[in-house]
């Protein structure tokens, strides 16, 4: 059966009947209070914000007082909302900007509003709609989930979902629809247990009718006749063992040593179904999950997980790749944390095990490892078709004999020089692209004399992790006049899984000089 076409008029009529009390959930008296409350609501519940703002507004009732505030005093008042240091900085900057540019008043112009500290597109839309009555449709996590389940959008980003909704519904209905969809997401269409049996939109919902897989959970739902939530209509395959640090997980008598599925399932029954609350500590894996349409499942990332750009404003950061904030990760209550052996230390996996948090560790040292990891991730995350499609295409591109090409070196750092050795992912990427990787294995530090002794015929300078630029390229070209020195896109070269195909194309198409 084909999924029904969206019926905007009928859908909104039912939403009006079901949620006549739908309104802005953030308590406020004026535009200033609303913009402050909306900034505080990032990665925080509206209820928590409403408990926080009375004391804040009693101490700082307007832009003028907030502009003169001390950072530590604001932090103390808003600490419970999370990310309080950055929020305090933005709030003080907001007060100063309002005083300097707008006479202490919140502007109603979208461009001017969006230029204020801490105010992105979502915040601006909320303020425009609720403080000034300007039609706008901010897409938060509830609207993102509900719109996709209702078949109103197939987009993988909040911005594109917003554009789809704005095309479907009349402009004059946007403000009302925003609140109705949020209420529906909170009261009926919850993230993990949507109450389809009690849903007033069930016959309009292709997800609730089982006609499409739930884009949030990744499974096809069936409706229980009783009051409980719908259940998956299919069983998940049990994933096989994945590469991981053997010392991080003790040997499990119920399963093979190092089998993350066995160990995690013994700790928590959630692991046997596709994870719904994922923390990714690997930048390229974060991007891959978004490419697979799993953005709604991401509840945490590292501060280096910056692609796609919008994820910086929608998914909270939990430290770095080498030093993740384990307390923050625990608070996010993930049912899976994704690691990679070279990027994340063994101690991180050990700490997660001690906290009882399931984790999966990849090991990417060759392009063929990417093929295996794509399949494993697809199975583990409940999207085997996406994993197989990507893996098969990458596998096909690796067929054929590889010529022994120019001696090539990838430099990844300066002061001291550091290179990626032949036994790394970057080394194999060179090999697959027709070069001969040289230098010591792993990621050695090299002196100037070491570089000269290697006598490379090609040198690649990726723009990350070190920010190599044209000046560095010119300096090395002068030192190695007979070598081809290439400044290349660092993400294309180093981000495995999400950009492996792009990296292969880059290396294969490098000119000899």
Automatic annotation (TrEMBL):
<comment type="similarity">
    <text>Belongs to the Nth/MutY family.</text>
</comment>
<dbReference type="Pfam" id="PF00730">
    <property type="entry name" value="HhH-GPD"/>
</dbReference>
<dbReference type="InterPro" id="IPR004036">
    <property type="entry name" value="Endonuclease-III-like_CS2"/>
</dbReference>
<keyword id="KW-0234">DNA repair</keyword>
<keyword id="KW-0456">Lyase</keyword>
<feature type="binding site">
    <location>
        <position position="196"/>
    </location>
    <ligand>
        <name>[4Fe-4S] cluster</name>
    </ligand>
</feature>
<keyword id="KW-0326">Glycosidase</keyword>
<dbReference type="InterPro" id="IPR054828">
    <property type="entry name" value="Vit_B12_bind_prot"/>
</dbReference>
<keyword id="KW-0411">Iron-sulfur</keyword>
<feature type="binding site">
    <location>
        <position position="205"/>
    </location>
    <ligand>
        <name>[4Fe-4S] cluster</name>
    </ligand>
</feature>
<dbReference type="Pfam" id="PF01497">
    <property type="entry name" value="Peripla_BP_2"/>
</dbReference>
<keyword id="KW-0004">4Fe-4S</keyword>
<comment type="function">
    <text>DNA repair enzyme that has both DNA N-glycosylase activity and AP-lyase activity. The DNA N-glycosylase activity releases various damaged pyrimidines from DNA by cleaving the N-glycosidic bond, leaving an AP (apurinic/apyrimidinic) site. The AP-lyase activity cleaves the phosphodiester bond 3' to the AP site by a beta-elimination, leaving a 3'-terminal unsaturated sugar and a product with a terminal 5'-phosphate.</text>
</comment>
<feature type="domain" description="Fe/B12 periplasmic-binding">
    <location>
        <begin position="277"/>
        <end position="513"/>
    </location>
</feature>
<dbReference type="Pfam" id="PF00633">
    <property type="entry name" value="HHH"/>
</dbReference>
<feature type="region of interest" description="Disordered">
    <location>
        <begin position="239"/>
        <end position="268"/>
    </location>
</feature>
<feature type="binding site">
    <location>
        <position position="199"/>
    </location>
    <ligand>
        <name>[4Fe-4S] cluster</name>
    </ligand>
</feature>
<dbReference type="InterPro" id="IPR005759">
    <property type="entry name" value="Nth"/>
</dbReference>
<keyword id="KW-0378">Hydrolase</keyword>
<dbReference type="InterPro" id="IPR003265">
    <property type="entry name" value="HhH-GPD_domain"/>
</dbReference>
<dbReference type="InterPro" id="IPR023170">
    <property type="entry name" value="HhH_base_excis_C"/>
</dbReference>
<dbReference type="InterPro" id="IPR000445">
    <property type="entry name" value="HhH_motif"/>
</dbReference>
<protein>
    <recommendedName>
        <fullName>Endonuclease III</fullName>
        <ecNumber>4.2.99.18</ecNumber>
    </recommendedName>
</protein>
<keyword id="KW-0732">Signal</keyword>
<dbReference type="InterPro" id="IPR002491">
    <property type="entry name" value="ABC_transptr_periplasmic_BD"/>
</dbReference>
<keyword id="KW-0408">Iron</keyword>
<keyword id="KW-0238">DNA-binding</keyword>
<keyword id="KW-0227">DNA damage</keyword>
<dbReference type="InterPro" id="IPR011257">
    <property type="entry name" value="DNA_glycosylase"/>
</dbReference>
<feature type="binding site">
    <location>
        <position position="189"/>
    </location>
    <ligand>
        <name>[4Fe-4S] cluster</name>
    </ligand>
</feature>
<keyword id="KW-0479">Metal-binding</keyword>
